[in-house]
From TrEMBL:
<feature type="signal peptide">
    <location>
        <begin position="1"/>
        <end position="21"/>
    </location>
</feature>
<keyword id="KW-0862">Zinc</keyword>
<keyword id="KW-0645">Protease</keyword>
<feature type="domain" description="Peptidase M48">
    <location>
        <begin position="63"/>
        <end position="241"/>
    </location>
</feature>
<keyword id="KW-0479">Metal-binding</keyword>
<dbReference type="InterPro" id="IPR051156">
    <property type="entry name" value="Mito/Outer_Membr_Metalloprot"/>
</dbReference>
<protein>
    <submittedName>
        <fullName>Peptidase M48</fullName>
    </submittedName>
</protein>
<dbReference type="Pfam" id="PF01435">
    <property type="entry name" value="Peptidase_M48"/>
</dbReference>
<dbReference type="GO" id="GO:0051603">
    <property type="term" value="P:proteolysis involved in protein catabolic process"/>
</dbReference>
<dbReference type="GO" id="GO:0046872">
    <property type="term" value="F:metal ion binding"/>
</dbReference>
<dbReference type="GO" id="GO:0004222">
    <property type="term" value="F:metalloendopeptidase activity"/>
</dbReference>
<keyword id="KW-0482">Metalloprotease</keyword>
<dbReference type="GO" id="GO:0016020">
    <property type="term" value="C:membrane"/>
</dbReference>
<dbReference type="InterPro" id="IPR001915">
    <property type="entry name" value="Peptidase_M48"/>
</dbReference>
<keyword id="KW-0378">Hydrolase</keyword>
<keyword id="KW-0732">Signal</keyword>
Amino acid sequence: MKKYIVSTSIAAVLLLFNSCATNPVTGKRDIVLMSEEQEIALGAQSDPAVLAQFGLYEDKALQQFIQQKGQAMAAVSHRPELKYDFKVVDSPVINAFALPGGYVYFTRGIMAHFNNEAQFAGVLGHEIGHITARHSVQQQSKATLAQVGLIGAMVISPEIAQLGDVASQGLGLLFLKFGRDDERESDELGVEYSTKIGYDADEMADFFLTLQRQQAGSGQAIPDFLSTHPNPGDRYTKVHELAAAWKKKENLTNAKVARNDYLKRIDGLVYGEDPRQGFVENSVFYHPELKFRFPVPSGWGYQNTPQVFQMAPKDGSAMMNLMLVPGETLEAAAQALMQGFNLQPVESKSTTVNGLPALAIVADQQPQQQAQQQQQQQVIRTLTYLIRYGNNNYSLMGITTADNFDNYFQTFSSTMQSFAELKEADKLNRKPERIRIVTVPQTATLSQILQNNNIKQDRLEEFAILNGMELTDRVEKGTMVKVVSH
Ligand SMILES: [Zn+2]
């Protein structure tokens, strides 16, 4: 959770109209349901939701780098006339994705895992390829928006999920699964575009190996460009073949890799979770920047995004979330909250929480009439504590069905009443890990070098993957290597 104010109307509007258009890449006539204007509008509407979900990574030089390389590549692409925008978003997850109309996003997590500019350029070309070949536009036509979100999946009741799912509204688009043919086509375009601006596309294939190793080790969610390829080996071979063919075609003899240049760029990059945006330790959520704390009920899962911190029990029968609500007073905030979530107050009282002024409100959400006709839906009952602290209104909302409310009341209220100012220095001063680039002083194995740089035994494999090397590899004196420090 960051200092974002929640907005209840970030849902992207999907414009679905039939039209027939010539595909910019294949030159063939496609049946797509969107005009170019609609495609651009869809991207422009979804962009704020992406930034609200992840936040922009604060590093001017890195943002300039992706913008500059992206624009250079867009200019040699099949749709140079589109207005493109390239951003690094503040997420530790390894991913890159594109929205229709020219919006491309790389996470800081994927930026940490590239080992040279050529790898970065290959993935950049792949994402631009999804835009130029109008993949998501066609995918949209098939109406297969995947609804995701960790909590969304955990919560059984769709009504509870809907009310609690502030963060992923409007983001369905991001989680489109492209088909295998689309991914193959984007690989080809990635090779073509990166070769055309002088990079060695062979490196893109090598990056697939890094991703495969990383996934095998962590079980992390699958990034876009690995999502629908059952046989990564074939893809690796194919990209190498394409790279050779395009080098020949473009007469590229001195293909750029730019390893050291890239590594210097990511020196100091935040690595892994950033505790300054809130972290959970021993079942307590701490937020060092906003200086507060409260407990997470035992056995509950949680998810932290810039907009909202969410918690839910394993059986998904309830959830609690914390967010900031605008308003000069608690009363004004309460009104905004009731309206935004379509809640009818049942009772409310003024109180204090660890010395902070607060409002406790029980409120119901009636099933919508349409839904009522389709199926039996239950009344949703909520308990909310609005707490005024440091010029902000914090809303802790517990959500469950009216039937279940008595069972959860105690858990909800004890969590909310434990909200307090964070004073512990060791939590307030918690710093994220950052990538450090070191130059190897003496030829040694990677394993030795990592250990010399205080990388713990149980993290050696993680850093081998991060460096795109094996622990037994001999690393020559003068080579740059990634390690971390606080
Ligand atoms: Zn892809």
